[in-house]
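Input/output pair, single chain:
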Amino acid sequence: AAEKLFSEKGYRQTSIAEIARLADVAEGTVYEYFKNKEDLLFSIPRLRFREHVESLTELFQIKAPMRKLRRFIRYHFVLYLTQPDFLKTFLLDLQLNPRFYETEALTFFRDYSGIVDKILEEGKVDGSFRPSVNNMIFKSLLFGGFFQMALQWLIVNTNDSSDRLADVHEALLLLVRGVTSA
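Output:
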């Protein structure tokens, strides 16, 4: 309920009473689980990133680092396109919130983004990725590029009928070319 309302109205404009109403619980019940609205806000990425990491177990059944990277990038884009409320809340209320970087939620995000480090290192070892690839810069391009595209899709050009899956494929190709050794 909080994720939906934060996405629709914004964090600042949403009250605990509205969240409780939408969740069909008493307002006091919300306070049994969360200290305040900010605590509730930061619980959302903890839950979502934990779910994301757990759902990626099949990724590690794939042996080839290039295939893993392609799968992760595609998964990342499609996952967030299917969770627009979380994406909008993360983009507008969490990512730009300095307090987010002091919370346990950041640990879950680092676990999630750290999967990319593992894939890149595997690819450097087996020779499919250039050894000089800077993991931090690659992740900045991947996640920063994704968030920029998502802002366009969800906020700037909401009526744009462009093929988002084609956009995802093009981004995937560009990112993979950036690390390929051959």
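The mean pLDDT is 89. The two ends are 48 Å apart (CA to CA).
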